[in-house]
Amino acid sequence: MKDFSFDTIAAVSTPRGKGGVALIRISGSAAAEVADRIFVPASGGTLSQKRPRSAVFGRIFTPDGGLCIDEGLAVLFRAPASFTGEDTVEICCHGGALVTRRVLEACLGAGARHAEAGEFTRRAFASGKIGLDEAEALGLLLDAGTDAQLRLSRSGMAGTLGKRCAELRDEATALLTDIYARVDFPEEDLGSISAEETRARIGTLVDKTAALAATYRTGRAVAEGIPAVICGRTNAGKSSLYNLLVGEDEAIVTDIAGTTRDVLSTTVSFGDVTLRLFDTAGIREDSADEVEAIGIRRAIEKIDGAELIFYVIDATRAPDGDDIALAERLLAHGGQVVAVLNKVDSTPCAEAEELFSRFGLRARLSALTGEGKDALEALVSSLFIDGELDFSADAIVMGARQYDAIARAADALAAAADTIDSGFPPDLAGVCLEDAAAALGELDGRGDTVRTDLIDGIFSKFCVGK
Length: 466
Description:
With 466 residues, the protein is of the alpha/beta class. The strands form 2 sheets. A 7-stranded mixed beta sheet has the order 3-4-5-6-2-1-7. The chain folds into 3 domains: 122 residues, Gyrase A, domain 2, CATH 3.30.1360; 120 residues, tRNA modification GTPase MnmE domain 2 (Four Helix Bundle (Hemerythrin (Met), subunit A), Up-down Bundle); 163 residues, Rossmann fold (3-Layer(aba) Sandwich). It has 16 helices and 13 strands. Helix 11 links the parallel strand 11 and strand 12. Helix 4 packs antiparallel against helix 5. It is flat and about 85 Å long.
């Protein structure tokens, strides 16, 4: 990432292609001057002379004034009252691909440089307008494909998680202050702080931090998604279930055994849970087809690494040796395995029911008609979603980086508690409390120990105009 302390950047902030309007954003100390070189208000004067945060109609020219590119609206935002915290200009022009490119070229020719990916948001972070947690929530909002992700991202952008971590950090810092003040200023009449009181306050912090860390199970299920595999014998209805969950016929469905040869994958919303879903080849030992055999090996690899497995059992057929072997593998699996008894709209088979009953998590379904889908959705949600959490208002950990910071804080607090429990004086727990406060400070990126490469990695995921 370049040093952007003094330069001015520009980029197209709307998607590429043809549209009704396009928006070009300019940000930096010379944003108004750059705009004045290419934008002429219809009312006369220059944009920098107009009232900030007001839409001004005018024409857009090349920097030499020789060619009128388009007409549109421009809005000037004066620092610090802008998204980036710098002087910012947003120009709206017609949304043709060529005209948009020409307006951006005019901005660059007037003194701006092309923004890097995520640089506008990076500047907002650098100026203290947003924390890293809010930037990550913004990234989720831009990529959101479900209503649950929208609600979670809006809560994150409001700084709910960052504020909660700041509260915990303040509690840890207050306890540190009480402990160290009595060590550093023994001559002052500050009273004593007992080991019991210190332990109780640390215990409260441990409980609060653990409760916050526990929200990651829900946040991850919504924001990042759960790796989920559909498996079973040939012709059990795996691809029909895949199509039902996806909502369209992506997988080929036939009565021919071995139709699915390779792993199909997509990301789908299943209730509030986001599934990174894989449809696999039917598992059987006697395949003479080399291509199908490769698909079966890949299926087993996906099963072994999955966090959620839909084991599809054909309700109309007695299990064979392949069914039993796969069932034994899945019963020993460390993830969540949901046995799905498919084709329940047909005459059931007692042996299939018996195999189905061996699993603790069960759902009856007709992938053909959709019967039982709602019950399966409710079951999956119960496995990963805490129904007590309000996505729109509660502090919820949604990313691995956030969870790592909070987990390290929890570990440091637990170590502080162990120090007191071992009979050492409260001041010796101070080092652990300092580590906890530092880890909590990393969550919003305003701490002193956040690595530059980590920050760069977060903003590099944004599009150029954001």
